[in-house]
Design a protein that fits this description.
- This protein is mostly helical and 160 residues long.
- The chain has one domain: Helicase, Ruva Protein, domain 3 (Orthogonal Bundle).
- Helix content is 74%, strand content 0%.
- The chain is built from 8 helices and no strands.
- α1 packs antiparallel against α3, α1 packs antiparallel against α7 and α3 runs parallel beside α7.
- The radius of gyration is 19 Å and the shape is elongated.
- The two termini are 25 Å apart.
- The N terminus is likely disordered.
Length: 160
């Protein structure tokens, strides 16, 4: 990944993605809480199964993202060390399950389910890239607690 394509997990980006994920989770809860039965009834049996699977996948994506972002917020607030946050138990879970949904399946579902699925995939993907960046920087020994300080050190060393 080039320097210009790095995705930083600054507190502002974490807060913004957190708000977006919580808002989408709220929209999903509202939709599935009010329209799920009627929408499911209109589907054939196989599509009902897909509908149920997709609703669980949406919830799983958002749950993992919100949980991971809460860890990042705890690091920013000094409540958790970066080293603790890097432990496997605090990582973004179920990546393979959450990465994508079958687009052909989504086309057979109600438009709101497809929309929720695609938007939750986008949020999960952004969180995944943020986590990958954090893990890469940790491997390279970058100062995760002070990215500006780390950048200044790199500039200093390049000038010498």
């Amino acid at each position: 990944m080039t320097e210009s394509r790095k995705i930083q997990s600054s507190p502002q980006l974490v807060d913004r993605l957190y708000e977006e994920a919580v808002s989408l989770a709220d929209q999903a809860r509202a939709y599935f809480g009010t329209h799920a039965k009627d929408d499911r009834r209109q589907l054939d049996p196989m599509d009902r199964l897909t509908y149920t699977s997709e609703s669980l996948r949406i919830s799983t994506r958002l749950m993992h993202v919100i949980s991971w972002l809460m860890v990042r917020k705890a690091v920013a607030a000094g409540e958790l060390s970066e080293q603790e946050a890097l432990s496997p138990k605090h990582r973004l879970g179920d990546r393979e399950l959450c990465k994508t949904s079958n687009i052909r399946d989504l086309r057979r579902l109600p438009p709101m389910v497809s929309s929720l699925s695609l938007r939750s995939q986008a949020i999960f993907s952004r969180a995944m890239h943020m986590e990958d960046d954090v893990l890469r920087r940790a491997e390279e020994g970058d100062d995760l607690a002070n990215p500006v300080g780390a950048m200044m050190e790199k500039l200093q060393s390049s000038m010498n």
